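Attaching the record inline, Q. Sequence:
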Amino acid sequence: MKVFLNGTAMAGGADHGNIKGAPFLGAATTAPLYHFYSVGDRFPGLVPVETGGASIEGELYELDDSAWFDSLLPSEPPELRPGTIMLSDGQTVNAMILELDRADPNELVNITSHGGWRAYHAAKAAQA
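Structure, as predicted:
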């Protein structure tokens, strides 16, 4: 299955090993249908929106059932749930969706304007 990753499971991230060497299909961007949040700077999350969404950068991988069900999903934070998203090229792929009502509102920072997890962290580093 094709899975869009946009946070700590991307290449170089702390949780990249959870995809068990899944083949990298390339950089990918969502359709402009999402807000993007940092949850306590521990992980990000996509939230589908009706209006005012943006495109978010990430990576596309081909995961087998074992990597998806036995490794990646069990390691995801409880604020995230599996779902599907639309990429900028029109493909519908698997991804993790942030459930805002499961997150501590004090930990949520809307980082949509950064366009991605890496860009958000780069901007924070530049400010430091």
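The chain has a mean pLDDT of 96. The two ends are 39 Å apart (CA to CA).

More tomorrow.
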